[in-house]
Specification:
A: alpha/beta; Aspartate Aminotransferase, domain 2; 7-stranded mixed β-sheet; 4-stranded antiparallel β-sheet; B: alpha/beta; 13 strands
């Protein structure tokens, strides 16, 4: 049994938790009550030793600050303890299984952190002369080569800072290509499947396009006939996630690419799910024009509680001339940055970010790629797909798999199995937290009712998956037994129980303010 | 492969459970002609030691600012990062967490973001701040889009001293949304000219963007521009690329700003060749629902205990789709944590000392450079960075300094290549990391080069 060690149970005898009790301090053992930093500290205390220089007003343009900022004074040990305690209230991949669909929560190797901090990499200034950063430019160029080779595409724009930023880059390249053809006033419509991530329509709108939704088939794919019917001379392109957000490969993808090209439009592929096909399928062979990669998903750079990420965009021959500045070129004298439209031989649509992109993320991603190699990356994506299908196979008899057949690296369930139990997708997910698992993605995609989207990634062992399966089967049994109250109350073993999000939005308190005396 | 747990036996057993014969069967939905028969043509797997060697060799080809007197700024500054910062941000519970969608197991991230928002609001003198943006340039671009939404106007005026990368990023998104952008030219040999900005403000102007200290290092008085903008119903976006300056200079919120954007890299974040950094974004209570990006808010759990959640999500893309305020769905979480830990370590006294120390170092260096023949410091006012006019093209001088192992400054021509009047000008920054020996070395080398 996966949850046994040498025949001895890992759970306390009886399996029950001691009842929580009120304490004097408010802390409960390792679950510390921790105030805000603004409620701690003392005036004049500091955690950094610096000399106390007096400076004159002479060169401050008459704009010296007179009122204090209001920051509290804490010593170094106070700061260390405060943030250590906060960290203990968080769930990370390091803590446990994190099957958050469409987010690719895989292991974050620590050697990548070490390398990103090397002298000569982590401490480089972005505006050093090119002659002093040949290694950095070579690193960016090498990463670009890996990305282009894995995707089977001729070009890549490296500077976008995140997936949504990459989408912006790709759609701006499409817009620039359309403008270059003199069709800016006619091609205004972008087709987006209804299963798409919300960033797709938001990005199209941010580029000044209108969004036209394409329905899905009963098999969870783009309705090819409906898609074809929507094509016309006003269509700028399609934004299609492949594998899609239902965890399925779009089997008509090549026909979709041909049709959109015949109609004079471009094919934006959302590469959020590249972890399913890395080393197995090259998107370039499917006929795409551009696609972003989330380096923080597929290539394991830490999600960091919501960033930073990086979203390089591969581009076809048709879109490559419009790639934004800056980019790296290589000639007999070495590597050089092209930083300005006016210094480019091509037709860059502009600039998306200060400086040259998310170098710290590039370093980690290339270290991840180098560690795996082409063979390891192919094995990683295959294992990710294997793990998702294993969950599908072992949970499908008790939970409702939304679409039949083989899935890619994530598997989608709907809330059909919870019908008449009084338990919602949200309740079910919250009960998983008490079991020590991070919930799957809930209520996304929107094409099925009460979605539960699970993405195990290649990092998880069979033992972890087996315990997860056993837990979910047990929770399902409990739901079917009519114990809805158990789920409505969950979680109970966390630093905080369910939080009132409605109150937070209705009367927003977005900062600490000093108590009124 | 050390990251992959499955043994061949595991894979076999799992395939059997699935009802597949081989791993290739998992890809049965992929068109046959698109399936690769073998790995792509790239290097094969490497052990940890080999990977360290590959990157060590690349690092050795660069001139590390830690090993050279370095005076580079222009929106990215070399500061000392306390060891505590880097230790805390590498705690796995912070490093390997996702966006805090499940608040019960994300109170750590949510509480530090709430602290971050409070610190940013305090520093900028504004009512509220978001949980961070990609960087200062994208934050500024988002501020212009927000001002356009809030005022329903399609014209933005940018002062001549706004960082050229910020201008270019803003112009790129403004073009997509048909927002007109105008900018006067600013001459660093003369004092900043508020009239050049004020004259461009009309009753169709959504916002005026003013940076202080500006790209030439000059400290700009926002007040007359803000007064003129508000009289025409335009919003004022104040930009700061060196957040530590706010420890010594008046907060833009007290000078008439409606939106403040800043680059937060200087607190807690490594230079890292330009990214990842952390964009700061603050505004007034009135405009909060127009604000882009993630926001954390205070609330209570079912037991009445204080806690934090992501809030105001009805502005965001996952709810609003094409009607969202922005397509952004991440912040710069870990960079925001580095910022907030560094700011917490400094506190009021530490930040004030750090800001004064930076200004004192820059004053000293400016005085030393004034004695170098062929170099003229142009600024009347500055924080920790100023413009030097040289007797030769700055790009040549900077190359010659680099050959002597000194990173002497940023040629303005690198940022504004179209401006012939800037060819001989160099931006020079001094921070607490620069020693007297560094400054002597720069002065000595400049005397040789000029």
């Amino acid at each position: 049994m996966a949850d046994q060690s040498q025949g001895r149970s890992n759970v306390p005898v009886g399996g029950s938790q001691p009842a929580s009790r009120t304490t004097i301090s408010g802390s409960q053992g390792l679950n510390f009550a921790e105030p805000l930093i603004f409620e701690m500290g003392a005036a004049g205390r500091t955690g950094v030793d610096l000399p106390d220089h007096t400076v004159s007003d002479a060169r401050l343009g008459g704009l010296r600050r007179h009122a204090p900022v209001g920051l509290p004074g804490l010593s170094e040990p106070q700061v260390v303890r405060h943030y250590t305690r906060l960290s203990q209230k968080n769930y990370g991949i390091d803590s446990g299984f994190y099957p958050l669909g469409s987010c690719t929560m895989k292991h974050n190797p620590r050697v990548n952190e070490k390398i990103a901090r090397m002298k000569g990499l982590g401490d480089l200034h972005p505006l050093q002369p090119d002659s002093t950063v040949q290694g950095a430019l070579e690193l960016i160029d090498t990463l670009a080569t890996w990305i282009k080779t894995l995707c089977g595409m001729p070009a890549v724009a490296m500077s976008p800072a995140a997936g949504a930023h990459g989408e912006l880059c790709g759609m701006m390249a499409i817009k620039a290509a359309i403008e270059n053809r003199g069709e800016a006033d006619t091609r205004k419509r972008v087709l987006v499947p209804e299963s798409a991530h919300g960033t797709n329509p938001a990005t199209a709108a941010a580029c000044g396009f209108t969004v036209d939704s394409i329905p899905a088939t009963a098999a969870g794919r783009v309705d090819f006939a409906a898609f074809k019917a929507k094509l016309g001379p006003d269509v700028a392109g399609i934004m299609l996630t492949n594998p899609n957000t239902c965890g399925l490969f779009e089997n008509d993808v090549i026909e979709i690419a041909d049709a959109i090209h015949d109609a004079g439009g471009y094919f934006y592929c959302d590469g959020a799910n590249f972890n399913a096909i890395m080393g197995r399928v090259r998107p370039g062979d499917l006929g795409i024009d551009c696609m972003h990669l989330n380096l923080h998903k597929t290539f394991s750079t830490p999600h960091g509680g919501g960033g930073p990420g990086a979203g390089p965009v591969v581009l076809s021959e048709a879109l490559a001339p419009f790639a934004p500045v800056p980019y790296v070129v290589h000639d007999a004298d070495g590597f050089k940055l092209v930083e300005h439209k006016s210094r480019s031989d091509a037709k860059p649509f502009g600039r998306l970010k200060g400086y040259h992109g998310q170098m710290g993320v590039f370093i980690r991603a290339l270290a991840f790629m180098s560690s795996h190699g082409s063979d390891g990356l192919r094995q990683a994506s295959t294992d990710a797909v294997l793990n998702a299908n294993y969950l599908r196979a072992r949970l499908g008899d008790v939970m409702s798999v939304s679409f039949d057949g083989m899935c890619m690296h994530e598997v989608l369930f709907d809330d059909g199995f919870l019908k008449d139990t009084g338990v919602s997708t949200l309740d079910f997910a919250k009960a998983m937290i008490d079991e020590g698992f991070h919930p799957m993605t809930m209520y996304f995609p929107l094409v099925v009712h009460g979605a539960l989207l699970m993405e195990p990634t290649e990092s998880e062992s069979k033992e972890t998956l087996d315990l997860y399966i056993k837990t979910l089967r047990g929770l399902n049994q409990r739901a079917q037994s009519g114990d809805a109250a158990f789920f409505k109350n969950a979680p109970v073993l966390t630093p905080r129980r369910r939080l009132d999000e409605t109150a937070a939005a209705r009367k927003p308190v977005l900062r600490w303010t000093p108590p009124v005396a | 492969m050390r990251y992959l747990p499955h043994t061949p036996k595991d894979r076999e057993a799992m395939l059997e459970t699935i009802g597949a014969h081989a791993l290739e069967d998992l890809y049965c939905d992929v068109p046959q002609k698109a399936l690769l028969a073998k790995p792509v043509d790239l290097p094969v797997a490497a052990g940890e030691m080999d990977v360290e060697r590959i990157f060590g060799a690349l690092a050795a080809k660069n001139l590390s600012p830690s090993a050279a007197p370095s005076f580079l700024g222009a929106g990215a500054y070399r500061h000392h990062i306390p060891a505590t910062v880097d230790h805390l941000i590498q705690r796995g519970e912070f490093l390997t967490a996702y966006t805090p969608y499940q608040p019960e197991v994300s109170q750590g991230t949510l509480q530090y973001l709430f602290e971050f928002q409070t610190q940013v609001a305090m520093l900028t003198g504004m009512a509220v701040a978001n949980a961070s943006m990609y960087d200062g340039a994208t934050a500024t671009s988002e501020a212009v889009l927000m001002a356009s939404r809030a005022t329903r106007r399609k014209r933005a005026v940018l002062a001549g001293g706004v960082h050229p990368h910020y201008v270019d990023v803003t112009a790129t998104s403004a073009h997509s949304l048909n927002i007109e952008m105008v900018q006067p030219t600013s001459d660093p040999t003369r004092p900043a000219d508020p009239a050049s900005v004020i004259d461009l403000i009309d009753d169709q102007t959504a916002c005026v963007v003013v940076q202080s200290p500006d790209i030439f290092g000059r400290i700009i008085d926002l007040r007359p521009i803000a007064e003129a903008a508000h009289a025409k119903g335009a919003l004022v976006v104040a930009v700061t690329t060196e957040v530590i300056s706010l420890g010594l200079l008046e907060a833009p919120g007290n000078l008439g700003a409606d939106i403040v954007t800043a680059e937060g890299q200087s607190l807690g974040n490594a230079l890292s060749y330009g990214g990842p950094y952390v964009g700061l974004f603050a505004t007034t209570s009135k405009l909060v629902r127009q604000m882009p990006g993630r926001v954390t808010g205070e609330t209570q759990d079912v037991e009445g205990q204080r806690g934090w959640v992501l809030t105001l999500s009805t502005r965001e893309q996952h709810i609003r789709r094409e009607k969202a305020t922005s397509n952004i769905c991440t912040n710069a979480g870990l960079c925001a944590l580095a910022f907030t830990v560094h700011a917490s370590l400094l506190g009021e006294e530490g930040l004030s000392r750090l800001a004064r120390l930076n200004h004192a170092k820059a004053c000293k260096l400016a005085d030393m450079l004034a004695d170098v023949s062929g170099a003229e410091v142009l600024n009347d006012s500055f924080f920790n960075e100023f413009t030097v006019k040289l007797s030769k093209p700055a790009e040549e001088v900077v190359e010659a300094l680099a050959e002597r192992g000194i990173l002497g400054g940023v040629p303005l021509a690198r940022l504004l290549p179209e401006r012939d009047d800037l060819v001989n000008m160099m931006l020079v920054a001094a921070t607490e990391t620069n020693t007297d020996a560094d400054m002597d070395a720069l002065v000595q080398a400049l005397k040789e080069v000029l």
